[in-house]
Amino acid sequence: MYTMQLRGINLLKIRGVQVVIDYSWFVIFLLVVFSMAESYFPRTEKSYSTPEYWLMGIVAALLLFLSVLAHELAHSLVAMGQGMRVLSIRLFIFGGVAQVSSEPRSGRHEFLIALAGPATSMALACIFGSVYLVLWMGGWLRPVAAVAGYLATANGLLAFFNMIPGFPLDGGRILRAILWDRWNDLTRATKTASRIGNGFALVLILFGAVLLFFTQALVAGLWFIFIGLFMKQSAVGSYQAAVLKEALKGVQVRQIMTENVVSVDWLTSLDELIRDYVYRHHLSSFPVLDREEFVGMVSLADIRPVPKELWGFKQVRDVMTAADRVLSLRPGDDATEALTRMVAADVGRMPVLEDGRLVGIVSRRDIMNLFKIKSDLGLT
Fold it and tell me: What domains does the chain contain, in order, with CATH numbers?
């Protein structure tokens, strides 16, 4: 329950970082394979058969996938070197994103983390470009040379595009790092970089619309529009996150947590849990106690795999997430950090413990209610 829930397929773990392929990634993978096999390689290399073009397309798409993964891994490894915890790398239709548990500690750290991705893509572009030149000049392995040439161009474009100074692209993060270091104000720097990112997003959308309506570049036009919309959504989300963080500055978990916690005894049957707790309190998760001792959390996700006919025989202790696997908060934790951890773990409520004793529970709703109150009072 309180491990991170990510939509997609868990591919592998690299130095403890879970790599996840979002289902949307398969869309772009198939599009890349199709465009390579049916358009790009037949146009640039005219002496091969259709199966050979498809093989070249599949190899090129897989190596492009590994290039994007290397780009995100570079971000992650530098972040880990700065003492940050990297939760996952998610590859999706627009590329990839590394999810970390907290913001960098300074503008310098942000700068190094953001620069690592484009630098890696540029290095890959040089490597693939060198392979292409050697093979092309020697007249050897022309299909391999063609794939290497495509990957050199793709990685170069990936590095160039990511250096656009608009948040949340790497260039926008570099700009934020510079402004953060200059102003010593992360919130102000984030707001500025997000506004610039929003502006670049609108430019991309307009450019895509021009391509779509005034040229024959239908696919390119739609692609620019989709990227622009994604970038705009991310920029707006980053701006809202900065406003939220500013509003929660200085607020501790003890100020927003619920102290009178509805808890469940670990010997309660699942039937009773559903009837007397879930239906009655309209909550999806509950702390579990053995007398006064906190022993875990139970949620609807824990109950769902159990056949309904067994609910009367199974007890909460049989399905709950044990205390040592439950992410928890302390009363003195920062509210912003609490929200970040809940979002990262994809949970709506988190127990608050002091010396191993349950003293309260805090939910995303509690935090957002405080934000709304401050907004209504004009304090954000």
Answer: 9-248 (no CATH), 253-376 (3.10.580.10)
